[in-house]
Amino acid sequence: MRARQESCCFSGHRPSKLPWGSNEEDPRCVGLKKRLYDAVEDAYEQGMRHYICGMAQGCDFYFCEAVLTLRKKHPDVTLEAAVPCLSQSNGWEAAQQQRYRGLIALCDEETLVQEQYTASCMQRRNRYMVDHASLLIAVHDGLPGGTMRTIEYAMRRGLTIVDIPPVM
């Protein structure tokens, strides 16, 4: 377990809340991925070495991939998958399940927040990440939902927050 002061966590939207949906070729998605990588790199320059990802589809995957790219440049970077429950990817399309398993395999550690799915397991995962970090990078459109609740919890816990709009 890395020190909280050098750890960064992430929260962001799933494809259903993104204007381009699952089309990662959309120029807006490409732009977001670039801004997300820049934020991860800035976090590294500020001393962040450990990154925690909740492993949901959409922006979590983009964050995870950005950290993996950063790790190629800086081998001292570590990546933790914070998995809310064992069945997280069960209802996903096969390609997304494969991507999920591939990303988890590339992580340095995996934390299972709880074994069984419950209505609160995603929130427990988000709180775990915030409780183990000093910086939150969030892709947020300003609307209510899980990302907003995570930002509010991070504010109460005193984290620095980098808020990235999905579209510039």
How would you describe this protein?
With 168 residues, this protein is an alpha/beta fold. The protein has one domain: Rossmann fold. Helix content is 41%, strand content 18%. The chain has five helices and six strands. The chain has helices spanning 27-45, 59-73, 94-106, 121-131, 146-156; strands at residues 7-12, 50-53, 78-83, 109-112, 135-139, 160-164. Strands 4-3-2-1-5-6 form a six-stranded parallel sheet, with helices on both faces. Strand 3 (78-83), helix 3 and strand 4 (109-112) form a beta-alpha-beta unit. Helix 4 (121-131) runs parallel beside helix 5 (146-156). The protein is globular, with a radius of gyration of 14 Å. The mean pLDDT is 96.
Proportion of residues in helical segments: 40-55%
CATH architecture: 3-Layer(aba) Sandwich
Oligomer: single chain
CATH topology: Rossmann fold
Low-confidence stretches: none
Let me know the largest β-sheet: 6 strands, parallel
**CATH C-level name:** Alpha Beta
Whole-number radius of gyration? 14 Å
The order of strands across the largest sheet is 4-3-2-1-5-6
Give the integer mean of the pLDDT values.
96
SSE string, helices as H and strands as E: EHEHEHEHEHE
User: How many helix segments?
Assistant: 5
- Total tally of structural domains: 1
Strand content: 15-25%
Whole-Å distance between the termini? 35 Å
Tell me the total number of β-strands.
6
Categorize the overall geometry.
globular
